[in-house]
Write a structure and sequence with these properties.
Distance between the termini: 61 Å
Structural class: alpha/beta
Radius of gyration: 23 Å
Shape: globular
Number of helices: 5
Strand order of the largest sheet: 2-11-12-13-9-8-3-4-5-7-6
Order of helices and strands: EEEEEEEHEEEHEEEHHH
Number of strands: 13
C-alpha cells in the first residue's frame, strides 16, 4: 500500500483529486495517437492575456414580512468580477480591470410588494455608502439568496469574458488564426462565450474524461507538455435535455513536477474551450491556443510557499482574489452596518 498527499489545504471545499467517471462519450478530436504533445513558444501575435475570476459572498440572511402573507427568505449579498490584463511576453506591467463590488438584495418572487434598493449611508461619509440592488429568485428555498448571488456572479464573468476576448475563427484553414487577446477564465467556460478566445482553467480534477487506459499519460507529462485535444458534450449524461447540451474541447497540461510525496496528478490542470456543433475537426485557432498553453501557464503558475493551491491557482488569479476581497470590504464591518440600519428602521437606538 502506498499513501500519497493531496497537496491542497484541508480547509478547501474540495480536494484536488476526486475523480468520477464522465457519463457521456469522449472522442479523439486532434489525433487518435494518445501521447504527450511537446510545449511550444508563445507567438508574438498574442499580445494580451487576461485572467478573469469572480467571488460571491453572503452578508446577511433575512426574513421578509409582507402583509399577512407567510414570511419569505431573502438575503444581502455581494459579488465581484474582475480581470488582470497582462502581456504574455513580459513587456509591460499587469493591470487590474473592473474590480468592483456589486451588492444584491436577493428576495423570493413570492413577495408581492415592490422591493426598493437598500441604501445604507454611514455616519462617517468617508467610509462610503452600501447600496443593495433588488433581484428576485424563483421559489422560497432557504438557499435561494445564495444561489441568486452566485448566478449573478457567473453572468458577470461571462459578460466580461465575451467583452474582452478576441473573436475566434472556427475553421481549419486559416494558418494565422491565433487571436491577439486571450482570456483565461477560472473554472469551466460559460455558456454564451462560444466564438471567443476564452479558455476555461479547471483547477480541481473532479471528473475522469480519460478512462483507466488513458489517464496514466497525465502522470508522465513533463512541465509544459499537454495531452491531445479531446471532444465531449456538456450534459451528455442521459438526463440533461438535448437543447441544454454544448460541445466542448478539452486537454490537460502539466504545470510542474509532482513532488514524490504527492499523488502523480498533482500539478495537472484541465483546460477547455467551446467546440463548433456537428463538426469533426479542431479549428486551427484552438490548436494554436492548446500549443501555447503549456508555456504560458508554466510562466503564470504559482509557487507552494506563496499559495497553498499552487501551481493551479495562477499568480494573476491570486492577485485578483486579493483585490476582490478588498473591494467587498470587511464582512464584520458590513454586518455591523446592516445591523445599525435595521435598528434605525425598526426605531431602536443603535
Amino acid at each position: 500500500m502506498q499513501i500519497r498527499l493531496d497537496p491542497w489545504p484541508v480547509d478547501t471545499l474540495d480536494g484536488q483529486l476526486t475523480l468520477k467517471p464522465f457519463a457521456g462519450l469522449v472522442l479523439d478530436a486532434e489525433t487518435p495517437r494518445w501521447a504527450a504533445v511537446a510545449k511550444k513558444p508563445v507567438p508574438e501575435r498574442l499580445r494580451r492575456v487576461l485572467t478573469i475570476d469572480g467571488k460571491p459572498r453572503m452578508e446577511a440572511r433575512l426574513l421578509v414580512e409582507h402583509g399577512g402573507a407567510q414570511p419569505s427568505v431573502a438575503g444581502f449579498g455581494a459579488y465581484v468580477v474582475g480581470a488582470v490584463d497582462l502581456c504574455p511576453h513580459g513587456s509591460r506591467q499587469a493591470e487590474l480591470l473592473d474590480v468592483r463590488a456589486r451588492r444584491v438584495l436577493a428576495y423570493s418572487d413570492d413577495v408581492q410588494a415592490a422591493v426598493q434598493p437598500a441604501r445604507f449611508s454611514p455616519r462617517n461619509p468617508q467610509t462610503g455608502a452600501l447600496e443593495y440592488q433588488p433581484h428576485a429568485f424563483r421559489g422560497a428555498h432557504l438557499e435561494g439568496p445564495r444561489s441568486e448571488v452566485q448566478r449573478l456572479m457567473l453572468s458577470g464573468e461571462q459578460a466580461l469574458a465575451a467583452e474582452l476576448a478576441s473573436a475566434l475563427p472556427l475553421d481549419d484553414t486559416d494558418a494565422d488564426a491565433l487571436a491577439e487577446t486571450l482570456v483565461l477564465q477560472d473554472g469551466p467556460v460559460r455558456i454564451g462565450t462560444a466564438g471567443s478566445a476564452v479558455v476555461g482553467c479547471v483547477k480541481t480534477l473532479h471528473t475522469d474524461y480519460l478512462g483507466a487506459d488513458r489517464i496514466g499519460l497525465l502522470s508522465v507529462l513533463k512541465p509544459g507538455e499537454r495531452t491531445p485535444i479531446l471532444r465531449f458534450t456538456l450534459g451528455d449524461d442521459g438526463l440533461t435535455p438535448a437543447r441544454s447540451r454544448e460541445q466542448r474541447f478539452t486537454w490537460y497540461v502539466r504545470l510542474c513536477e509532482a513532488p514524490f510525496y504527492q499523488h502523480p496528478l498533482a500539478g495537472v490542470m484541465r483546460l477547455e474551450m467551446h467546440a463548433p456543433e456537428d463538426s469533426d475537426f479542431v479549428p486551427r485557432a484552438v490548436i494554436d491556443i492548446a500549443n501555447l498553453s503549456g508555456t504560458l501557464l508554466c510562466r503564470l503558475a504559482s509557487q507552494p510557499h506563496k499559495d497553498q493551491r499552487a501551481p493551479q491557482n495562477l499568480i494573476p488569479t491570486g492577485a485578483l482574489e486579493q483585490a476582490m476581497n478588498r473591494a467587498m470590504g470587511s464582512l464584520d464591518l458590513v454586518t455591523r452596518r446592516i445591523r445599525s440600519h435595521l435598528a434605525r428602521e425598526l426605531g431602536v437606538v443603535a
